[in-house]
Each structure stands twice: as structure tokens, then as C-alpha cells.
């Protein structure tokens, strides 16, 4: 499993980052304040991983290019993950915080790769 | 058919009428047209089906993906207009793809390949059969489209990744 840094361009609003409203108080200024239920320890601690799945239609060279563009991989590293997808059926291409993992999955779907978000078990 | 490239464009020359027609069909072929399998492939699940992320994804992310895919096919359709209005209907023609449209072409070609493959549910064996004749059935023609579009993708990728010199497609 690898963890990567690098700039990413979201293609849409992230589906993550919404807390659950559990009640309402009045602030000292008199304005209503919606209380948010804190994330569970499990939500906060466990990393998430981006998994790319095999697809017999997408070209190997295309998948390699997408990995280079989305994750900034070198060609060698991109090819290693591409071959892992091809041979093993899936490859974990990134792990880390959920919100960023979601953005990566969005980008990969924008390139029409089969990608999912999974919690590290 | 010959494919050349220069600094600002890819040029596909000597396109025979049959291949020109396949090129014209790219935008249409990229549309799922009510095929649940094709729709499912273009807009795949981001996680296990029981994850609430999937519902939010459909609401917030899928519309943006649709916009991106549509924009790419519209760009390709605009470029393909060059193939219309040929004075001699059965003459070979030339298509010029501006370099700045290369990513849109990659996307549209990929959409078309995935949609066709999903509609016909091609097997892995069929997808590896690059020499099957397109003449026989609509399914055979679909497989030929997938392979032909894949060939164009390969060339565009080559152009994007390392900018190689002129090339010609043998045997056509």
C-alpha cells in the first residue's frame, strides 16, 4: 500500500465532510447553532484506500497514462500498478484520508476507470 | 489510412468511406441509449452498494461526470464535421484533430468503446480477437469499432506521452 501526495483537481463537490446534525442551541449572540455529532474514533483513525479494478476494455497504455496524470506517478510506477490491476484484478493505488480518497476516485471515474473507495481493514 | 502529427494537430489522411463512417459514429456510439449495462459501466459505483456514499455520489458527482463526458463528445462531433460535405461521396478524406482536443478524443473514444462493449457483452476472448472481420453481423461490426477506436486511442496516447514522429498504418 502506498500513500501519495500531490495536487489534485476535484471534478465535483466532495460527497464527504458532512456531519450529522443532532440538536440546536442558541449562541451567546442569539443565533441558532446546529450541533454536529462528532465522527467516531473509527471514522477518524482508519485510513481509506483507492482501489482500481480490472477492465478488459480500457487500454493498458491508457490506464498507465491516467495513473501518471492523477497521482503524478513515474511511468515505471504507473506501469507497475497497471500490471497489478491487469494480473491481480485490482491494485491499491493510494491510501489516506477519506475526503482526498473520494476526490481521487472522482478523478478516476472521470477517466472511466473502475475505481472504488475502501476502508482499510 | 495515414496518421501524421505536427506541433499543433494530429492528421488522419486517406480515410476510406467505411472508416470515415465509423469515425462519424463516435459521438452516437458513446451514448448508452437506455442500455442499463452501458449506463452502469459509464457511471460505476464508488464503493460497495450498501455504502451511503453511493447515493450521494449519484446526487452530486454523477451529474458532473455526465457534463464532462458530454463536453468531450461535443468537441469530437465538432471536429468530425470536417468529414461532411465531401464533394465526392466515396472519396477518401482527411481529418485534422487539434492537439488541444486530444484529451476530449481520448475520452469520447473510451466512452464509445465501453458503451459498445457493454451493450454487446463481449467476452475477453472476443476483445482479444483483433482480426475478426467486421462483415458478418452487427456484433462483429461492434467489435471492429472497439478495436478501431482503440487503435486511435493508442496513437493519441503516443502523441500525448512522447510526441513521436509521423507514422502510417500498414495494410490499409
Give a verbal description of the structure.
The complex is a heterodimer of chains A (121) and B (172). Chain A is α+β, with helices and mostly antiparallel strands and 121 residues long. Chain A has a domain at 42-119: Ribosomal protein L7/L12, C-terminal domain/Adaptor protein ClpS (Ribosomal Protein L30, Chain: A, 2-Layer Sandwich), CATH 3.30.1390. In chain A, 36% of the residues lie in helices and 26% in strands. In chain A, strands 4-3-5 form a 3-stranded antiparallel sheet. In chain A, helix 2 (60-71) crosses helix 3. The longest helix of chain A has 14 residues, at 75-88. Chain A is globular and about 55 Å long. The two termini of chain A are 12 Å apart. Chain B is an alpha+beta fold and 172 residues long. Chain B has one domain. Helices cover 56% and strands 11% of the residues of chain B. Chain B contains 7 helices and 4 strands, in the order ββααααβαααβ. In chain B, strands 3-2-1-4 form a 4-stranded antiparallel sheet. In chain B, helix 3 packs antiparallel against helix 5 (102-120) and helix 5 runs antiparallel to helix 7 (138-162). The longest helix of chain B is centred in the middle third of the chain and has 29 residues, at 52-80. The model of chain B is unreliable at 164-172 (pLDDT under 50).
Amino acid at each position: 500500500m502506498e500513500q501519495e501526495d500531490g495536487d489534485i483537481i476535484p471534478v465535483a463537490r466532495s460527497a464527504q465532510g458532512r456531519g450529522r446534525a443532532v440538536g440546536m442551541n442558541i449562541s451567546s449572540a442569539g443565533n441558532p447553532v446546529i450541533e454536529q455529532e462528532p465522527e467516531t474514533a473509527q471514522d477518524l483513525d482508519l485510513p481509506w484506500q483507492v482501489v482500481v479494478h480490472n477492465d478488459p476494455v480500457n487500454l493498458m497504455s491508457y490506464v498507465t497514462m491516467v495513473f501518471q496524470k492523477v497521482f503524478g506517478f513515474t511511468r515505471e510506477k504507473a506501469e507497475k500498478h497497471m500490471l497489478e490491476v491487469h494480473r491481480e484484478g485490482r491494485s491499491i493505488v493510494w491510501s489516506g484520508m477519506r475526503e482526498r480518497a473520494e476526490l481521487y476516485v472522482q478523478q478516476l471515474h472521470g477517466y472511466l476507470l473502475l475505481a472504488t473507495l475502501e476502508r482499510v481493514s | 489510412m495515414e496518421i501524421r502529427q505536427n506541433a499543433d494537430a494530429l492528421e488522419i489522411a486517406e480515410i476510406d468511406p467505411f472508416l470515415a463512417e465509423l469515425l462519424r459514429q463516435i459521438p452516437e456510439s458513446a451514448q448508452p441509449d437506455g442500455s442499463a449495462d452501458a449506463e452502469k459501466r459509464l457511471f460505476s459505483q464508488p464503493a460497495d452498494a450498501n455504502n451511503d456514499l453511493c447515493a450521494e455520489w449519484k446526487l452530486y458527482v454523477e451529474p458532473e461526470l455526465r457534463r464532462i463526458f458530454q463536453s468531450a463528445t461535443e468537441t469530437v462531433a465538432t471536429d468530425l464535421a470536417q468529414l461532411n460535405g465531401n464533394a465526392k461521396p466515396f472519396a477518401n478524406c482527411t481529418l485534422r484533430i487539434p492537439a488541444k482536443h486530444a484529451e476530449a478524443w481520448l475520452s469520447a473514444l473510451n466512452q464509445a468503446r465501453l458503451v459498445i462493449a457493454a451493450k454487446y457483452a463481449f467476452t475477453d476472448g472476443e476483445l482479444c480477437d483483433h482480426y475478426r472481420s467486421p462483415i458478418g453481423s452487427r456484433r462483429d461490426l461492434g467489435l471492429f469499432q472497439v478495436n478501431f477506436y482503440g487503435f486511435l486511442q493508442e496513437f493519441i496516447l503516443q502523441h500525448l506521452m512522447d510526441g513521436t514522429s509521423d507514422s502510417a498504418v500498414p495494410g490499409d
